[in-house]
UniProtKB/TrEMBL annotation:
This is Putative aconitase subunit 1. Keywords: Iron, Lyase. PANTHER family: DUF521 DOMAIN PROTEIN (AFU_ORTHOLOGUE AFUA_6G00490). It comes from Sedimentibacter saalensis. Transmembrane segments: none annotated. The keyword Lyase applies.
Amino acid sequence: MILKPEQQAILNGEKGETLAKVMKTLVMFGEAFDAETMVPVTSKYNHLVTSFGLGALQPVYDLMNQFIDAGAVSSQKFTADPRPMDKNVPSGLLQNLVFKKFMYNKQDYYEDQLKKLGLLNDDAFTCTCYMDAVGNKPNKGDVLSWSESSAVVYANSVLGARCNRNSGILDIMGSIVGFVPYFGLLTDEGRKADWIVEVKTSKKPEAQLLGSAIGMKVMEDVPYVKGLDKWLGNNLDDDACTYLKDFGAATASNGAVGLYHIDGLTPEAVEQGEQLIADGAKIYVIDDDELQRVYDNYPVMWKNIDAKPKLCFMGCPHMSLQQLKDWTDKVESSLKQYGNKKVVIPTVFTAAPGVLKEFETTSYSARLNATGVITSYICPLMYMNNPLSGKMPVITSSNKLRTYTTARYFTDDEILVQITKGGK
């Protein structure tokens, strides 16, 4: 790798042994992907994927202390993924014991480390850091050092920023030295589409289901999606961005997509159109039958497939303000239709702390609370990682949560019926 004088100086130890090790790590990372140079991180803020104080992560805490002791903290503040626990989310005594004593027993300690390293504020815990209420929204063309998969794919695709799918810890390392290896999705060539996806459904496809189908088909490649303009239009408004948030999270978790282009909608597709499609790109047609095939092939991880759901999680990734409002309307209407006053399954809607605070200033907050739905800043995935939680029959419309846990996937419409009427 060819380094510029400033980068070589860091590697040579001119800014201390700790920064030299960080730079060496990033150089080795880049060389593994044939990167020939490093480029500056240009975003205002960083985002860290590691937000949970898991007891087994002692090497992480030791490393963070090395950074703190060496003063290896950049001027770039950061947000982090959601907290793993919230007392407002239903859990039993044994579950709480496992959470607090055996799983996330280092949470307070780790959050103190994050504050010393540059955490943006006490509310900076969310996987949707790009929400306006959070304040970590990169600009088009910004080079990032992020690793949270759903945030990376959103930043690349919807915002036009540039970031590879890094791993945890590498995200803060890039922020500390201010440089990342130049390869993959940082390059023009790496952002070209290897797949043309033609959406030919008879109705607006479920975002999480469509993203799942594409992710499992293209894996880590870049898809260029045609046909969504019929449902999303050609304006990146709140509805379109919310749809793409959930769509992208599914492509990134059910596959390993770090960037997608939506014909006529996402920034680079608007500017370059089909010039983004690489020579020899493969074609994948998605119609109603294909989406049904994907849905029917999801495994059910429950011990008893006919069990009555004990918990519902919505918001993985975290819900937007508009989603909270829309779901308030839908839950109220559906409860009225089925003659119930409150949801019949304990239900948790998760969103960023800043989004929840904004939601609480609206009339929707009291209305949603009256339906029995709980709002929380929690990470549903971290909740489900508790072995006792994993044994519960939990339902969700998140394909990310379905992929990483034992939670069972249903479409939004199916979820609505289950939580307001009951049955499957």
